[in-house]
Amino acid sequence: MTSPVASANETKSAVLPETKGTGDIAVAFSEFMNAFEVFKETNDRRLADIERHAADVLSEEKLARLDTALDEQKHRLDSLIVKASRPSLSAGEGARPLPDLERRAAFDSYMRTGAEGKLALLEAKAMSAGTGAAGGYVVTPAVEDEIGRRLMAISPIRSIASIRPVSVGTYKKPYRVTGTTVGWAAETASRVETTAPVLSELTFPAMELYAMPSATQTLLDDAAVDIESWLAEEIELAFAVQEGAAFVGGNGTTQPKGFLSYTNALEASWAWGGLGYVVTGVSAGFAASNPSDGLLDLIYTLKAGYRQNGTFVMNRKTQAAVRKFKDTTGNYIWQPPAVAGGQASLLGFPLVEAEDMPDVAANSFSIAFGDFKRGYLIVDRIGTRVMRDPYSAKPYVLFYTTKRVGGGVQDFDAIKLMKFGTA
Q1: Quick one: which of 49, 60, 106, 221 has the most CB atoms within 10 Å?
Q2: Is residue 178 one of the residues assigned to a domain?
Q3: % of the chain with per-residue pLDDT over 70
Q4: By C-alpha distance, which of 129, 126, 124, 165 is closest to 147?
Q5: Are residues 269 and 159 part of one domain?
């Protein structure tokens, strides 16, 4: 058995030091890859010990620490990449073009001082499609575009789903329940009269998502502070967290409907309107032998047209479990991203980490696989709005910011689930 001192020293050297705040993505990516190599070596030793019936508790503990360190380094790398990819909202070299400077100046004045006159006049002239009855003012197009880009970068389901901007409260999408009858016939044989296709309708109402960042008047009076960038940075994480939870498990009444909120059925008895699933055969876990076979079953449950664009979705704890699996040739089925900013892969398919997916438990649906671009639709109502409130939390100024978002499954053939149970 490994001595406690040796194990502690090995772990100390294996868990690499935290990347300094230099923004050096290349260094962070190199450390992440080195950590994965140490993780594989440790797991290989653990598996060898198990085969010799000499399992080492210290090896298990070390592997758990390495797994946690690997996740932390990946999150740190992702944060550096998101930060580096954010374009500037202010004018200057390398900045995006900023049309409608008059409206930007009016919006800036409203945010800093509360002066509404000019902004109200400009909105009345524009007759914005995003204007609603909730009060406040629509943010500038530059801010709305930036919020959308930032949400795309940090909201896991948004990064893989279809997104449709709309100017109405509810988006309706028709779909064909039954198609036109077709068939083969001999030259002189009678033809059966074809039936017209039957259409039904999916509806995606846009629900209100809000955040309320606060600022001191001193911050607002500082001309060096880019108010538009500040607002985007303040609300991006709040919106992303709430969206992520709703797109996975939202109730469809006050939130977008999450894909786990639909009815589901074992794949053999699946019908349109719900999601099909396969089972692991073990309650609250994977099969003891060849656990990756269940993942292969999930992959090949999808039709070929969807499978080629398939993506795995699971949370960090579930990913930690599958990270230890090997295929029949001894290769790890989980692989780190090939480049900084890339995605990890599982059995050759991209893997997206969504913390709102449930942990592995009895009868949980902890893994999803599918073509989410075709399977899940996110509806963005045009017009993120801001209402300035300098009274409710003096001496702070509150900015009640709302965005209307909807979502739901649009193709029930495109997403399949894994159930950690026996039926």
Answers
A1: 106
A2: yes
A3: 84
A4: 165
A5: yes
Q: Which amino acid is at 3?
A: S
Q: Is residue 129 over pLDDT 80?
A: no
* Residue whose entry in the numeric block shows the structure tokens 């080629």: 308
Give the pairing type, strands 214-216 and 396-409: antiparallel
Residue 66 lies in a domain: yes
Contact criterion met (CB below 8 Å) for 305 and 297? no
> In a 10 Å sphere around its CB, with 0-12 CB exposed, 13-18 middle and 19+ buried, how is residue 406 labelled?
buried
Question: Edge-to-edge strands of the sheet including 311-314?
Answer: 264-266, 275-279, 415-419, 365-370, 311-314, 349-353, 345-346, 334-335
CA dihedral sign, ordered 122, 127, 129, 130 = positive
Q: Are residues 312 and 174 in the same domain?
A: yes
Pair 330, 410 in one domain:
yes
The more confidently predicted of residues 175 and 399 is: 399
Chain segment 316-346, per-residue pLDDT in tens: 999 999 999 999 899 999 999 888 778 899 9
Beta-strand relationship, 376-381 and 396-409:
antiparallel
Does pLDDT of 97 surpass 60? Answer: no
Phi, psi values for residue 111, rounded to 5°? -65, -40
Q: What is the mean pLDDT of residues 66-70?
A: 82
Rounded CA-CA distance 293/10 in Å is 33
Residue appearing with tokens 């036109």: 180
Residue 22 in domain: yes
Alpha carbon 338 to its chain's center: 20
Give the residue-averaged pLDDT of 118-124: 78
Report how many domains make up the chain: 2
Q: In terms of residue numbers, what domain contains 174?
A: 138-423
Could you give the residue ranges of the DSSP H alpha helices within 194-261? Answer: 217-221, 227-249
For residue 222, the Cα-to-chain-centroid distance in whole angstroms is 35
Q: What sign results for the dihedral spanned by CA atoms 87, 92, 98, 100?
A: positive
397 occurs within a structural domain: yes
What pLDDT does 153 receive?
82
Q: Are residues 80 and 146 in the same domain?
A: no
DSSP symbol at 339:
S
Question: How far apart are alpha carbons 37 and 298 in whole angstroms?
Answer: 28
For residue 152, what is the domain's CATH number?
3.30.2400.10
- Digit-coded pLDDT (tens) for 175-234: 776 656 677 878 888 777 766 677 778 999 999 999 999 999 999 999 899 998 899 989
DSSP label of 123: H
Helix H or strand E segment including 313 = strand 311-314
Mean pLDDT of 397-420: 96
